[in-house]
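Help wanted!
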Amino acid sequence: MAGQTNHPLRGDYSAIAADYTVTQDYARYTESEQQLWKRLYARQSALVPQYACDEFVDILGALNFGAGIPHFDEINAKLSSATGWALVAVPGLLPDDVFFTHLANRRFPVSVWLRTLAEFDYVVEPDIFHDFFGHVPLLFNPTFADYLEAYGVGGVKAKGLNALDYLARLYWYTVEFGLIQTPRGLRTYGAGILSSRGELPYAVNSPKPNRVAFDLQRVMQSHYKIDTFQETYFVIESFDELFLATAPDFTPYYAALATRDAIAANEVLATDRLIRV
Ligand code: HBI
Ligand code: FE
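Answered by r_m:
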């Protein structure tokens, strides 16, 4: 997303290392930020059991990071033994190539700053609450963790092929706004939904948005909106499906996609398999 923002970035980039990482500097969080974290966590963790996939809910419960802003070190001790991933502290949005290189090496960038109280319901750039609550639990799931690494590897490659837009759409419609079929019905695994009070019930239950069975090239062809609830969600059957679909080299897909028009965010194609709620 760093490539798509035209406003100045929110974070403090003055002390970054070459790979854009910073130290978390835990002492800088104020008491009111700790209170805000607890409120954000309490609200969102009460909602997710109805809307999130079991993999997410189970790990969230086990991690239990609602008592205060989490220490990256403590989560990393657990995460490294679970899937070999590590969280790295960053000031905020990163240039695409830097972001992809971290993912390709099983490092997940997490913003160090927390939104303000005025942004309780919505913040444009990813803050520590979005990154932690939305993304960290599924880094403990081995299949999802492998998918995210493969995504990063694909991203590094895509840069040289002028295909970053396609990859950004894939990230958006899976990692951020993906839905998944489960024995208990439709659920979400997307961090943008999981960290949003309003979009959780909308994405999972509202009759308004389109829900289309996941198809890799369809997703990579589809525009998205960053400032409204999504008009279309893509539904996977399992994390295995996601990992397998993204296992092949994308180079031939990019060649095919380059010959086609992009699909509008609200458009439904005759070839789409629609999922009703
Ligand atoms: N940087 N910190 C951070 N978090 C993101 O989610 C992120 C980013 N930089 C680029 C980026 N996302 C997008 O290009 C994705 O489409 C990959
Ligand atoms: Fe995110």
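OP: Thanks! One thing I noticed: The CA atoms of residues 108 and 202 lie 27 Å apart.
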